[in-house]
Amino acid sequence: MTEREFSVYAIVRCGGRQEKASVDDVLTVDKLAGEPGSTLTLPAVLVVDDGQVISDPAALGGYEVTAEILGPVSGPKINMIQYKNKTGYRRRLGHRQKYTQVKITGISAGKARASKSSTARTSTGKSSSAKASAAKKD
What we know:
The chain has about 140 residues and is mainly β. Helix content is about 10%, strand content about 55%. It has helices at about 55-60, 130-135; strands spanning about 10-15, 15-20, 25-30, 40, 45-50, 50-55, 65-85, 90-110. The chain has a four-stranded antiparallel sheet with strand order 2-1-5-6. It has a four-stranded antiparallel sheet with strand order 3-8-7-4, with no helix packed on it. Mean pLDDT is about 80; it is low at about 110-125.
């Protein structure tokens, strides 16, 4: 029996779609603003690291998927023809969707996100410092 070799890959969200990305992959995504050679960070939806699947949003906050913009590309030409019989009506349209190619440069476990608030919330929803200031006023 042979051993399976696991690699790190991530499912990232880009342009309203989800794409499978691993290091050195070139993805074609919807048109992005940015110059060729610039880097961007893509949000991870799911990460597979040596067979361990991570899908918890709190744990995914520590992962960063970085990509480099390679440049703009165009999709295939789509031809549309409208025709109505016996009226002489003909209309021809064409469309080419604009895309951006990106190269995945790294998938890393970055820093964990800091908590949103330094004060602890109580069961009523008010922070402990707000209760203390209300008590001083009375």
